[in-house]
What does this fold into?
Amino acid sequence: MRIESKIPDVGTSIFTVMSKMALDHQAINLSQGFPDFQIDESIIQLVHRYMREGHNQYAPMPGTPALRNAIAEVVRGSFGRSVDPNTEITITSGATESIYSVITAFVKAGDEVIMFDPSYDSYDPAVRLNGGIPIHINMSQSFDIDWDQVRAKITRATRMVIINTPHNPSGSVLAEADLLELERIAEEHDLLVLSDEVYERLIFDGAIHQSVLRFPSLANRSFAVFSFGKTFHATGWKMGYVVAPASLTAEIRRVHQFVVFSVNTPIQLAIADYLRDSEHYTTLGSFYQEKRDFFLNEIKGSSFEPIPSKGSYFQLLSYKAISQEPDVAMAERITKEHKVASIPISVFYKDNTDHRILRFCFAKKEETLAKACRILRAL
It folds into this structure.
């Protein structure tokens, strides 16, 4: 049988590769972005309750009304934007499905989509699978966006810009000035904006998350993507949602219904209750900032150089003072020989730019981080 791959250059995700390597070599896994601690017992009890009450069949395709209503309240309270839960919110099987469904709904053959490297690894394949052309723009070494460079890359074929804040893998965040400039560019060139905001609650040092939903003109042409998996320390639940104007949401749902149709019913109902009754959202930033600060304190005295993390699960460390070997080789060697797994940053660049930087996930128990840092200090 003759098989032609649509994306022949795409192999197994680096997250899968490094997590398997960590398992094979019994290394501490600070590579893949998932917590190693338990989620809130109360939400587990809510899920159990709804299962026991028989809420185990298909949810409505856009998501349960209870959850969409709860999200609308969160959006209004957090970003000052009123959204219609019936026509502007869709519950998805994780943020990755949101991203794929948006791209599939709006990117046609020959459309160009601008993205910023280092970029999350699902963006480029999703664009290419739909016949689009990814346009990669490298961020600065401090992980800022050069908006003049963006303007220079826009053509008549440009359809969409993808942003990610807080940024994975760097932990940088976009400022209000960035969103205002993006708003001007999007309006001038009639562009759509896909905003990956899955770490929206993980903002540090007193900063405010600058969602596209805060900017009315930008929000009217944007898709804001969020993740309950990140917010509730339950990445395995694959629960996300996308907020967009009604006309855009209608097209997203045309795709969503044929990708997964609907998402886990008892978990949706449990999250709806939890959002109404818990202050979990308000404490996430400080919770993860403590973990970031703990990791940074434990790494003191090592030869690694931390690069500021302003949000997300992740801390970048430069190893230039330790080795000049490529970051993929360095990540593999530390995993195999020293038993701490990380992610090399070059894999997030189309051109494989290598600044000798590794990404470490600090969404772990303190004992896990302390043990890993003891090893890293000795390198």
About this structure: The chain has a mean pLDDT of 95.
